[in-house]
Amino acid sequence: MSLLSINKLSLSIGGSSILRNINLELEAGKCLGLVGESGSGKSMTAISIMQLLPHHSHLSGSIKLQQECLTELSEKQLCERRGDVMGMIFQEPMTALNPLKPIGAQIEESLLLHSPITRHEAEKKAHHLLARVGLPKERYSPNRYPHQLSGGQRQRVIIAIAIAMRPDLLIADEPTTALDVTTQAQILELLKELMHEDQSALLLISHDLAVVADMADHIAIMKEGEIVEQGAVPALFDTLSHPYSQKLFEASSHVPKRTKPPLYYGDPSLEEAGHILKAKEIARDYPLPRTFPYLEKRKFRAVDNLDLTIHAGQSIGLVGESGCGKSTLARTLLGLEAPQEGMLHVGGHNPYTASRDDLLSVRKDIQVVFQDPNGSFNPRHKVGRSVAEPLHLHRHSVSQSERDEKIRKVLGQVGLKPDDAERYPHEFSGGQRQRLAIARALITKPKIIIADEPVSALDVSIRAQILDLLTKLREQLDLAYLFISHDLSVVRAITDEVLVMYQGRIIERGRTHEVFANPQQAYTRQLIAAAPDLDAAIKKRQLKDKAQGQFSR
Asked: What are phi and psi of 243, to 5 degrees?
């Protein structure tokens, strides 16, 4: 008998059709994977199950959990079941967490609401849950607030809240999007343990087919509010018949085509051309709170004596787990946080000692594409104004007509229309907003772009388009990239060389294909082994099914 049964579910909001005739079944102890592009209706299906729909929505069909029809329950009854019988891991942790409460208190809140325990017992259990998701109180105080954690750490807090009451149904909406590969592997293993120990059912929503192929017993593929294909794993991958399903499968292993050969460190042609960026023995420290007022101040070294040289046209990947110093290094290279030790030159100038005119040159030569394009645009400004923000540095030398022409040109370079400059950020899809972020970085005609997780939040088909765009721009404009990512498949597809960072140090550097084929360091081998691989996941499931079939005979 199914734990969750969805029959002929349709949803419309304000007269617009969102979901059409959705039919799904999920048994206890099993995992159902729901995949599709952004806007296909995956998250709205989850929100419909949780009954968290906005006003002016109309829902038809039935949603039964443990034979109880959720659509017929009152709001009070639903509140009793949310967090207890059914839990949800939301995609965006910063908006799901209360910014005014410590993370420990937010986990305790769920425990106190749904179980008859004391506050002291709830506090102990909250500490245990944080440790279970990789945030032990010895390293991460439960008294921290959400803004004091990284994106991956906030996601772990959300998971701890969702699993606090060991719900019968756990809905995970992109639970590993913001996590590095080793943490992702730990979280997925934790979800498997919950399914096995508590016979919890897991509805896993993800754009990563490799993760779904490894976790799910059954997969449903959504497009424009409808399920176009579904079936058991791994048999479904052998029988994909819908063109959309085939397109998703192909995009998941997409490698951009290059017309120019890779550029490697040490090539004579690179050395003759000179470097764009050179960092030597860079060290960046952060102060730690004193454990006692009279004790000596302590510090944490986030970047430790790091050397880095980047030449024109090079594409270098920087990988490592959360907290290893990748983003700190990026801020230092961008001239935003001065290092305590070492030397940095961008285009021949040190951004921390340069004169005003030289600093303008540095700002022009190096730009950044942020991880979250939605958060990096002002929602009250039209995108034309946001894209032109870097030109503010040159406002006295660039006229209004020149500014408008630059906006039109750069929007065309990233595959958007000139008229798009008059629209607001919320009017664009996630992939289009990422194109706008790239356009903003290009408008000063930089020599190097630091891309901090530029495709981590995008589905596979949009990710393939953005990777193609970045490759095309690199070859057309002779751009250099420092590509920061926890997605090793992306790093393998777009970079010539890769740097592996661990505890503030570069522990391995080499040509991308050589490092992936023959890693020298144990930590690098651990990273590569933890990275999801679609082909490997399918083969693993096929072998498992074959072994189970032989055993049953």
From this structure: -55, -35
**Is the domain of 230 the same as that of 378?**
no
Of residues 495, 485, 431, 38, the one with CA closest to residue 248: 38
Residue 420's closest CA among 384, 474, 461, 444?
A: 384
CATH number at residue 513: 3.40.50.300
Tokens describing residue 18: 């969102």
Same domain, 285 and 247: no
Residue 402: CB atoms within 10 A of its CB come to 12
Shortest CA distance to 536 belongs to which of 494, 488, 496? 488
Spans in the chain with pLDDT lower than 70: 1, 151, 178, 269, 271-273, 291, 394-396, 457, 548-553
Q: Which of 146, 79, 143, 144 is nearest to 113 (CA)?
A: 79
- Cβ atoms of 189 and 507 within 8 Å: the answer is no
For the sheet with 275-288, list strands across it.
298-311, 275-288, 341-346
Residue 288 and residue 299 in contact, taking contact as beta carbons nearer than 8 Å: yes
Q: Is 260 part of a structural domain of the chain?
A: no
Range of the domain at 384: 268-520
CA angle 481, 482, 486 (to 5 degrees): 125
Distance CA 545, CA 486 (A): 31
Neighbouring residues of 174: CB distance < 8 A, sequence distance ≥ 6: 91, 205, 206, 207, 457
The per-residue pLDDT for range 107-157, each reduced to its tens digit, is 999 899 898 999 999 999 999 999 988 888 888 889 999 988 876 788 889
- Residue 121 CA to residue 129 CA, distance in Å, equals 12
What count of residues does the chain have?
553
Q: Please check whether residues 309 and 426 belong to one and the same domain.
A: yes
